[in-house]
Prior knowledge:
Order of helices and strands: EHEHEHEHHEEHHEHEHH
Strand content: 15-25%
Number of helices: 10
CATH topology of the largest domain: Rossmann fold
Radius of gyration: 18 Å
Shape: globular
Strand order of the largest sheet: 2-1-3-4-7-8
Structural class: alpha/beta
CATH class of the largest domain: Alpha Beta
CATH architecture of the largest domain: 3-Layer(aba) Sandwich
Helix content: 25-40%
Amino acid sequence: xxxxxxxxxxxxxxxxxxxxxxxxxxxxxxxxxxxxxxxxxxxxxxxxxxxxxxxxxxxxxxxxxxxxxxxxxxxxxxxxxxxxxxxxxxxxxxxxxxxxxxxxxxxxxxxxxxxxxxxxxxxxxxxxxxxxxxxxxxxxxxxxxxxxxxxxxxxxxxxxxxxxxxxxxxxxxxxxxxxxxxxxxxxxxxxxxxxxxxxxxxxxxxxxxxxxxxxxxxxxxxxxxxxxxxxxxxxxxxxxxxxxxxxxxxxxxxxxxxx
Length: 259
């Protein structure tokens, strides 16, 4: 998922910025909103002194796949740069579910300071998704080949085992569902631009061992990376992981290793 025109170095700090610690770009899950499942985590981080941005992403409840995967990464990068302009010396990109997938993708697209993946989801490379969406992926490819990739069409989707119909352009849809495309988590983790602190938090109700092997172990090793299991199911992870995320982010603050 290389963007040849993208500068892989972190967004530069402006000269006037002072060292104010850690900022967090927090990405909601599929069909979610900034005021949904991630809201309590965002509020807790803000109370803890972190600068937090919670943007509405192109997989929100009223705009699923309204932009391509690559366009979503560019939006995340804009949020990272905005927090840097506000004075954050380090910016972690965090996300829940599909937002966690995009956070991992961001680390492959450009050099990230830190990544937090909460109950990551969406795996177009896996057999179950390949089979379920094969016809839609094939139709999207055919539309693009016919010069109709920018036309909006109805496509199939799934959200926590609930079937969905989404309206998206063939180009955008394919970017999310191509089994060889930019949304493949293990390939993205292995392609981090540099060894990156990575926190993965999984709910005990999910297949924890699978997730560690699936992508966490493929990321370049970093001494601050951690794989953590909390109680609860997929949708509960942002709330159940508040303490773990706060503590992990504190360890990233400048000078934390000296205290």
